[in-house]
Structures are given as C-alpha cells and as structure tokens.
Amino acid sequence: MNTLIVLRHAKAAHVPGLADRERPLTDRGERDAERAGETLRRLGLSPELVLCSPSIRTRRTAELALAGLASEAPVHVETEIYEAYPDELLELIGRTDGEVSTLLLVGHNPGVHELVLNLSLTHDDEGFPPGAFAVLETGPWADLGPGDGRVVGRWTPKGH
C-alpha cells in the first residue's frame, strides 16, 4: 500500500499587480501550513518525496509543512502542477519511483480537490479550502486511476 498526501496551498494574499504565481502566503497561511505539517507528523506520516507546483504560495506551503513535519524529503518543483487537471496530476504521480511509499503533492484547486474525488470516487461537498489536506491509501503509483484510492484522513485549518 502507498500513501498519497494531497495538500492545497495555504491562504494566499491578493496583491494588485502581482502575477498569480508570485502571490505570497498571508500570515494565517504561514501558520496553517506549519500546522498542516505538525498534524501530519502527529499522524505518523512523513513523505519520502514532495511534488510541488512552482508558485510562491505552494513552495512556501511545502517548506512550512515540511518544517512542521521535521522532514527533509526532497522537493521536486513540477511546472505541470500549476493549473493541472486531475488526469494530469495522476499522470505526474504515475511517474513516481515505485520505491517511494509516501508521496506529498502540493498544488492548487480545483485540481487537487478533483484529484481526491477522482481517486476515491466520492462526491463530497466539504470542499478543499486553502491549507487543507487529504490522506489516501493507494496501490502502485504507475497504476493509479479513478477509484484506486481510499481517503483515510482529512484535515482543514478551521475544522481540524
């Protein structure tokens, strides 16, 4: 069994004139990202690899979550995560080395939320707010498709 952690970037600022990819986290976003990592640590989850969108807000979310986890997992910045559809995220995950058993994907909505729904074949309406994560048990990365994941945990900054 593999474990996929899908994390949406934490709350980002809207700065007039700043490109979307350059948006920083808010103070709350900074705290929430670190809390997400601390929560993953308490759950006993530690990624061996992180796939992260190139935006400032996702890279900072990954950095703070890993600090909260006390993890030094390598972070691969993948340009294709930015504005990706679920099938594109699945394709990227599918290229992950089979030796990796716990993977953290840090990205954006709606792609990350739809990925979780697609893998688990659920139709929840809870949404996936900034800083939220879902933990899924899956089979081999190369074989993942719709219905091949089971959500075993969810966390949101407000709802815990």
TrEMBL record:
Keyword Hydrolase: yes
Pfam families hit by this protein: His_Phos_1
Keywords, comma-separated and alphabetical: Hydrolase
Protein name: SixA phosphatase family protein
Organism: Sphaerisporangium rhizosphaerae
Biased composition (Basic and acidic residues): 19-37
SMART domains: PGAM (SM00855)
Kinase in keyword set: no
Region (Disordered): 17-37
